[in-house]
Amino acid sequence: MKKILKNKYDIQQMRLSGKITADVLTMIKNHIYPDISTQDINNICHHYITKIKKAVPACLGYKSFPKSICISINDIVCHGIPDKNILLKKGDIVNIDVAVIKNNYYTDASKMFFVGKVNTKKKLLCKITRKSLYQALKCIKPGIKINNIGKKIQKYVESQKLHVVKEYCGHGIGNNFHEPPHILHYYNKYDCLKMQAGMIFTVEPMVNTRSQYVECMKDGWTVKTRDGGCSAQYEHTVLVNQKGCELLTHQKNEKIPKIFINN
Ligand code: MF3
Ligand code: CO
Fold this sequence. Notes:
Structural class: alpha+beta
CATH architecture: Alpha-Beta Complex
Bound molecules: 2-amino-4-trifluoromethylsulfanyl-butyric acid, cobalt (II) ion
CATH class: Alpha Beta
């Protein structure tokens, strides 16, 4: 089993990596508009990560994924492949999922963007998904069982009559893209591992409007809702510290704090 706790050096490096991932998401906001292709968005991110930040896009070549980031529009749940023939249009909600490697340290984050004016239902889906992630962040501190994360997310999402996707989970992250532990976004009573200061993992709930069910397309990557309903996702890479947690992928323009003190 891989080591689950990070040391001071690891944490320093993860902060550097996380800042790059966060900066990509901040930078790309100005490039989200009608008629831009998802390939162009991919290329802007690729250039920024490699040339400006001297880092490596973690998705590119990961299990043969062909592009540098994932872009998932409306009923695409996750792992949308950037393509020159896929153009953003007014009213779309778009998830951009960025993972980078800097000095051999991985971080991973994603958020939703709106293309022009978006209808109330889609806006609400995004807001609730984002808030479900924040509810989970408020319960992260040493000694608390990891299954509290999923419990909080599921409880909040279902109270809003929306649906948590069960097939994908958060994950430990560090010198590898995916490390133990698994972070479920729904409650599992058998998952009794406790959080410890020095753990770093992602929390990345995917939430659907109509039902939880998803299907993978023939390209082997693109995951869609089965019923054509919309899906949203927000993700952060999170360090558990003595009093709560630190968002390693916190973006300057976010409404929530970078450091959570969870007494
Ligand atoms: N960010 C996703 C994750 O959490 C993406 C992995 S699939 C990839 O694992 F191929 F796009 F990298
Ligand atoms: Co992830």
